[in-house]
Amino acid sequence: PASSVRLSRDGNAIPVDWDTNYRLQPNSLYLHFGDLLPGEYRIEVQDISIFDESGNAFTLPHYDFEFTVSEFPPDDRNLKFDLDLNGVVDERDLYFLVMGRWEWVAYQVERCDLNGDGEFDEADVTAWLRDAWDHPPGDVDFDGDFDEHDLAMLSTMSYSDRTLADWQHGDFNGDGRFTNDDLILAMQFGLNIDAVTALDHRRTLPQA
Predict the structure, then answer these.
(1) CA–CA gap between residue 137 and residue 149 (Å, rounded)
(2) What's the Cα-to-Cα distance from 106 to each of 76, 80, 137, rounded to whole Å?
(3) What was the pLDDT predicted at 202?
(4) Domain limits of the chain?
(5) Which of the pair, 124 or 80, is modelled with greater confidence?
């Protein structure tokens, strides 16, 4: 797609080797911009022809859109864990890490090597879950603990590998689904027994 994709910043064209900086997956075309400086950007796509394994051709229609790259926030933790560079550390960075691990291994090793071992693997996902923000796996009510309240909420949620889910609906490993793997992950990080015990204790107090 080299001659069919144009990227510009503040009206000035930016040279990008689109012949190598893209990945084509079923139903998806990924374009890798690299590290972009803050500014106003515009990308134009025109007459990209895609061929499947049988030789059938499909041409994407012309489109263009604009986007803004903001300044980095001053928080050092945000700089490291804000992987989608939107200025906020949240579950979308986890999704970026997990999904990007399969699409951008060659490009993202340095940026996504969160535990500093020189590799890009499950250990980096664990590092994000442990250090990036203040909500352990299982904390669907965002109160900072995985406790009885969360278990009660999880028990009402759809449990299937065919149903899309976000963090608040049980997806703690970033694969977009609420499955047994998410429950195992939450238990591995630990149920807050003190919080559950406190809840049970309050229930046993005599009512006025």
Answers:
(1) 13
(2) 25, 19, 28
(3) 39
(4) 1-71, 148-204
(5) 124
Q: Are strands 39-45 and 5-9 parallel, antiparallel or unpaired?
A: antiparallel
Q: Read off the tokens for 178.
A: 């609420």
End-to-end CA distance of the chain: 73
What is the rounded distance in angstroms from the CA atom of residue 182 to the CA atom of residue 176? Answer: 10
> Residue 12 in 3-state DSSP?
strand
Contact (CB, 8 A) for 39 and 11: no
Distance CA 177, CA 39 (A): 35
One-letter amino acid identity for 158?
S
φ, ψ at 185 (rounded to 5°):
-60, -45
Looking at the chain, how many residues does it have? 208
Three-state secondary-structure class, residue 35: coil
| Contact call for residues 35 and 8 (beta carbons, < 8 A) | no
- The overall average pLDDT reported for the chain is 77
Task: Determine contact, residues 79/70, Cβ cutoff 8 Å.
Answer: no
Quote the pTM value: 0.57
Per residue in 145-172, pLDDT (tens digit) is 898 899 899 888 877 777 789 999 999 9
